Amino acid sequence: MAAKGRTEMEVGADGVAVITICNPPVNSLSIDVLVSLKESYEEALQRKDVKAIVVTGKGGKFSGGFDISSFGNLHIEQPKVGYISIDIITETLEGATKPSVAAIDGLALGGGLEVAMACHARISTPTAQLGLPELQLGIIPGFGGTQRLPRLVGLTKSLEMMLLSKPIKGEEAHQLGLVDSLVSPNDLVNAARRWALDICELKRPWIKSLYKTDKLEPLGEAREILNFARAQARKQAANLEHPLVCIDVIEEGIVSGPRAGLWKEANAFQSLLFSDTCKSLLHVFFSQRATSKVPGATDLGLMPRKITKVAILGGGLMGSGIATAMILSNYPVLLKEVNEKFLNAGIDRIKANLQSRVRKGKMTEERYEKALSLVTGTLGYEKFKEVDLVIEAVIENVKLKQQIFADLEKYCPSHCVLATNTSTIDLNLIGEKTKSQDCIVGAHFFSPAHLMPLLEIVRTQHTSAQVVVDLLDVGKRIKKTPIVVGNCTGFAVNRMFFPYTQSALLFVDYGMDVYKIDRACTKFGMPMGPFRLADLVGFGVAVATGMQYLENFPERVYKSMLIPLMMEDKRAGEATRKGFYKYEDKRKATPDPEIMAYIQKSRSMAGVTPDPELMKLTDKDIVEMVFFPVINEACRVLDEGIAVKASDLDIASIFGMGFPPYRGGVMLWGDSIGAKYIHDKLQEWAKRYGSSFEPCSYLSERAAKGIPLSAPSNQGKARL
Fold first, then answer.
1. Distance CA 499, CA 30 (A)
2. Residues in contact with 293: Cβ distance below 8 Å, sequence separation at least 6, in sequence order
């Protein structure tokens, strides 16, 4: 049985009781820890030899916050609503008859910061992280944070810290008044002891944060700030309730007083714990951490090899984006192109990516120069003898890729990892003409590669476990979330989402409006709808992908002529400033009435007449028609063993395609609707619109037996 978290108390000769939170690795606040903290306080208050209290965390970390794995049990373990917030934090800690000081090092996040704010002063190291990131998990701060933070740093800053889950460093916290003094880690506890005794001797003020008012704006001004925050929250996250609840709770404390605010917070926190949003975001939190556990790779005791130099073939949109991601994490990059013109264009793209960071204040000029100096351009393979990892990012052409990998085998050292950024082509086909198939792996980035957080690592039956471990390590270092998948056309993400665009194209032939489909998808929470996405990726890629699917899954492909027709007229998406939308000004997409002519032609070539029923559909119906085929394909991906587990596909859909995280990912969302409902709808559409909607056997079986789509299966054929 795991050791329970606890606090330890030690009373010094100076009369200061030092209470230390002990619950490694980040001293999270489980119920055990909080009850122990209360008991330690009560003992310190009763003891005659204790004058003051210091609260700190073991091992250089104050506390990372409430123990997330206990969320589900909070209603069972907390004797009543408000027990932690009112009885422990407010009555016992803040209401103590002896002064207390928080000594903060490492991190004080969430409940950790809420404990610190209930102390009568805070002393921190300059680099400690302080913040209330609870909104990332679909809840609000629940231990008094919504009431104390505004009183310590002012309304505007506290809203930013809570609504954006934005932590700050000790230095900024000191400037804002959240902490009272900065000291080095070595002097932290001693400085806190002295401060606590100074309060005792009336040399320093004894401040209860809950009743501070000097940082709060007058009521009228406060209401304006809160209303502006509400408008921003509605704009940024139209489908989310908890940011608005957070603002309401803060307002209650300002209007009706801090005790009323604490009670409103406690009740709101309790109800949000059981919301679908919280359940989904917790699922994402744990699933993201589970993607790097890969059977047959990370369980063999292998250590990643050191990758010191990376070569990238192709300086187009993807190649330059991958190069940017690498240099931002200090990897020297060799960029190869076929001629000077293409090479200069590739380096210009990297410069533009970096300059965009400088403009946004995310990068200094000095850092820009340093990052750029890590890129070397080349037209030949001579320097490839020094590289440890090659990523090929040229156009989707099988013969070209085969030639490149045959060349790489000649010029690269034998330990070199040979990766391809192909998004659809079978890796065995790419490595067919080489003897180094154990070194060949897919490193599929998503566009734009320096911004999108997912890295799909594709492993064939020949890829060595060492290569997978190496690439997982590189993924982590370049701040990507890696997911390891098996080898097949489209791998996991593109294969799952091929039906996203395909269904949309079919429904346009049958009379649905392009822009209405896109609007329904963005309203649902996608960053862009299927047609805006096709424009961004470019029609060339869309057609190449379509050909791959036609070859491998002919029975499930709907052959729309709409994109090829537009391409004949040099409309190929955003890059040509015309696709489904027109782009006249800085990537701003504007609907283009000209596309109607192409749609009419596509319809007549398909021999279909518009279905009047489709004109009447609600946004919910449209979302189902576009996404249920995605769920169907995700079920096939799981059934074939392309993905290790359903939660990996949830992470892939969120980080690869921008599926809304507050819906938990494509499989969790599917389970929230139910396999039977999805199955029956797909069957109905298959009869009406063709075989591409036919439910797969995995979905049919689960619908019949009432088993969740994401429940583990024993029949996976494990392509991994």
1. 44
2. 299
What's the CA gap between 447 and 493, in Å, rounded?
Answer: 13
The whole-chain average pLDDT of the chain stands at 94
C-alpha 553/C-alpha 694 separation (Å) is: 13
The mean per-residue pLDDT over the stretch 655-674 comes to 96
581-585 and 588-591 beta bridge pairing: antiparallel
Identified catalytic residue from 42, 94, 134, 584: 134
**Is residue 470 pLDDT above 70, yes or no?**
yes
State the residue for tokens 């013109």. Answer: 341
Q: Which amino acid is at 227?
A: N
Nearest to 335 by CA among 380, 401, 399, 388: 380
pLDDT at position 3: 58
Q: What is the pLDDT of residues 398-428, one digit of tens each?
A: 899 999 999 999 999 999 999 999 887 889 9
Q: What is the rounded CA–CA span in Å between residue 276 and residue 280?
A: 6
What is the DSSP secondary-structure string of 168-198? EEHHHHHHHTSSSEE--GGGHHHHHHHHHHH
Taking CB atoms within 8 Å and a gap of at least 24, the contacts of 518-523 are: 519/619, 520/619, 520/622, 520/623, 520/626, 521/622, 521/623, 521/626, 523/238, 523/619
Give the residue-averaged pLDDT of 366-389. Answer: 96
Q: What are phi and psi of 19, to 5 degrees?
A: -100, 120
Helix (H) or strand (E) holding 391: strand 389-392
Q: Nearest CA to 566 among 578, 549, 584, 548? A: 578
What is the average per-residue pLDDT within 360-375?
95
- Backbone dihedral region for residue 27 (phi beyond 0: left; psi -120 to 50: alpha; all else: beta): left
> Are 602 and 561 within 8 A, CB to CB?
yes
Residue in this structure with the two tokens 């591409």, named with its chain if needed: 692
Q: Contact, 347 vs 315, CB < 8 A?
A: yes
- Strands of the sheet with 389-392, listed across from one edge: 375-378, 333-336, 310-313, 389-392, 417-420, 440-445, 454-459, 481-486
pLDDT score recorded for residue 618? 95
Report how many helices (DSSP H) and strands (DSSP E) the chain contains, helices first.
29, 19
- Per-residue DSSP letter, 29: B
255, two tokens: 């209007």
Task: Tell me the C-alpha distance between 102 and 122, whole Å.
Answer: 5
- Is pLDDT larger for residue 395 or for residue 135? 135
What the block records as the tokens of 168 is 């700050």
Indicate if 134 belongs to the active site: yes
DSSP 92: I
Mean predicted confidence (pLDDT) in 301-326: 96
Residues 414 and 429: their CA atoms lie apart, in Å, by 21
640 a catalytic residue: no
- CA–CA separation, 261 and 569 (whole Å): 62
Residue 719 confidence (pLDDT): 47
Q: What is the pLDDT of residue 714?
A: 61
Cα 314 to Cα 380, 688, 709: the distances in Å are: 12, 44, 40
User: Is residue 717 over pLDDT 60?
Assistant: no
Query: Is residue 109 pLDDT above 90, yes or no?
Result: yes
Bridge partners, residue 16, by sequence: 52
DSSP three-state, residue 215: coil
Q: How far apart are CA 518 and CA 504, in angstroms?
A: 9
Q: What is the mean pLDDT of residues 513-529?
A: 96
pLDDT digits (tens, 9 = 90+) for 6-63: 999 999 999 999 999 999 999 999 989 999 999 999 999 999 999 999 999 999 999 9
Which pLDDT value is given to residue 76?
57
Amino acid residing at 706: G
Positions of E strands within 407-497? 417-420, 440-445, 454-459, 481-486
Query: What percent of the chain is modeled with pLDDT above 70?
Result: 97
Peptide bond preceding 205 in cis form (omega within 30 of 0):
no
The pTM (predicted TM-score) of the whole model is: 0.90
pLDDT in the model for residue 133: 97
The one catalytic residue among 42, 43, 114, 551: 114
Quickly list H helices, 16-110: 31-46, 74-77
- Residues 454/656, Cβ–Cβ less than 8 Å: yes
